Amino acid sequence: MNLNAFEFLDNFALMALAAVLYGIILRLEYPREVRRILGGFMFGAGAAVSMMDPLRVAPGVIVDLRSLFIGFSGAFLGPVAMLISLTIGAITRYQIGGIGVVPGIVAMTLAGCSGTLWGHLMRNRSRASLRHLVLLGFMLCAGLLAFLLLPPEIRVKAFKNAVPYAAACYILGALLLGTFVERERFSAMRERRLTNEVNTDPLTGLLNRRGFQRGFDIAQEEIVSENGAAILLVDLDHFKKLNDTHGHDIGDLVLQSVGAILRKAVRQSDLLGRLGGEEFVVYLPNASMADARNIAERIRIGIETSTIASKGKPLPVSASVGGSWSSNAMDLTTGLKLADMELYKAKQAGRNQVHFTPTIKSAA
């Protein structure tokens, strides 16, 4: 066996590529669980590729950086991603064959579990320090205990020659490449946070005007509104008087409570925003006129029956709702204008009401 440290360290280029791909996956506009699954496949592919050019300790016994990939998957993406990468790595190792198959799979499992444990221990920390990454490297070395499952004559040879190289590379890899992965993770988190700050109303957590416009444009492209679509404007009644009487702190509490009521009243596919002051907007894609009216009424009743209180006394909070419905997709500017006209009618009619435009025939 000719162990060449530089040849072994060549695999770090693959880890560096994995770190870059990890950053790209984090920036995808997918749910977090989907991104984690994609990351699990990515790290699993890295583990499989690393086994294509291993160090050969003995016939059927190989040493490579697969455990680093699988350990990183558990450490930075969680147990589901780790199981995905472990499965890919185990299938690849089984196909390679040899007497080292079982120890090899055990080694990956130990490393994956160690990485997942490290991730669990780090769950309350925003960023891993160098000493934390060194600890990760030492924990991944637990996989090297699988060499104990080899026949005695090969086991001694492996512990004498291969284990020191592997341990050094695991620790160095966790330190250097862990830094790259952490940098990508922190950068992606910062970008996502800045994007949220730009597009989100800080008081209610709903989209602001800019974020709502962006979300509306995306929804127009991705959602086929076969049943029609609607825009609702929700405006709190006598909100200025409430603010003047009870103070802005209570006013803010009311706005936050209304934001929560809106979230409960709409469907998962619907879009919520706060346009400013006491005015909220709701976009209902793929909603019939009946659906839109039901949701608007559910919002109105939810606000009217809310249990918002000041100094132990319930506050009389209500809202007027104006809606515009189209038989197909609609233009946001037109929809808002028509909904605003209906909102005005609801106010003029006595407030705490829902008013809708007649059906709009949109061009296909």
Care to give the gist of this entry?
Helix content is 61%, strand content 12%. It is built from 13 helices and nine strands.
Describe this structure in words.
GO terms for molecular function: diguanylate cyclase activity; phosphorelay sensor kinase activity. With 364 residues, the chain is of the alpha+beta class. It has two domains: 5-197, Orthogonal Bundle (Arp2/3 complex 21 kDa subunit ARPC3); 209-356, Reverse transcriptase/Diguanylate cyclase domain (Alpha-Beta Plaits, 2-Layer Sandwich). Strand 8 (319-326), helix 13 (332-348) and strand 9 (354-356) form a beta-alpha-beta unit. The model has no long low-confidence stretch (mean pLDDT 88). The strands form three sheets. The protein has a five-stranded mixed sheet, sandwiched between helices. It has a two-stranded antiparallel ribbon with strand order 1-2. Helices cover 61% and strands 12% of the residues.
List keywords for this structure.
single chain, 364 residues, alpha+beta, Arp2/3 complex 21 kDa subunit ARPC3, Alpha-Beta Plaits, 2 domains, 5-stranded mixed sheet, two-stranded antiparallel ribbon, elongated, phosphorelay sensor kinase activity, transmembrane helix, membrane, transmembrane
**What integer is the average pLDDT?**
88
Structural class: alpha+beta
Q: How large is the radius of gyration?
A: 29 Å
Please tally the helical runs, counting DSSP H or I stretches of 4 or more residues: 13
Residue fraction in strands: 5-15%
Helix residue percentage: 55-70%
Order of helices and strands: HHHEEHHHHHHEHHEEHEEEHE
Query: How many strands, what sense, and barrel or not for the largest sheet?
Result: 5 strands, mixed
